[in-house]
Design brief:
With about 80 residues, the protein is mainly α. Helix content is about 85%, strand content about 0%. The protein has a domain of about 55 residues. The protein starts with a helix and ends with a helix. Helix 2 runs antiparallel to helix 3.
C-alpha cells in the first residue's frame, strides 16, 4: 500500500520503489530456498550445510535490502504525508 503512495508523492522515489519491489521478489525467492533447504534436511535428502548456505544468503540479502530501504526512505517518510 505504501509504494504507490510514495510514487505519487514524489516522482524522484520511483526508481527507489522499483528497486525495493524487485528486491522484495528476490527476498521471496531466498525465503523459499531456506524453506526448501529445511524441508530437505528434515526429510533426509539435505544437510545442515545446505541450510546454513541458504540462511547465509538470506542474511546477506535482507541486511542489504534493509540498509538501502532505510537510507532511501527514512527522510521521505518523515517529509511526506503518505501514511
Amino acid at each position: 500500500m505504501l509504494f504507490p503512495r510514495l510514487r505519487r508523492a514524489d516522482s524522484r522515489l520511483v526508481p527507489v520503489v522499483d528497486r525495493l519491489e524487485e528486491e522484495h521478489r528476490v527476498i521471496h525467492d531466498v525465503l523459499e530456498a531456506v524453506d526448501t533447504a529445511l524441508v530437505a534436511l528434515v526429510n533426509g535428502s539435505g544437510d545442515i550445510a545446505g541450510v546454513r548456505a541458504a540462511v547465509d544468503l538470506m542474511d546477506d540479502t535482507l541486511l542489504s535490502h534493509l540498509s538501502y530501504e532505510e537510507r532511501e526512505l527514512v527522510e521521505p517518510l518523515a517529509r511526506l504525508d503518505v501514511t
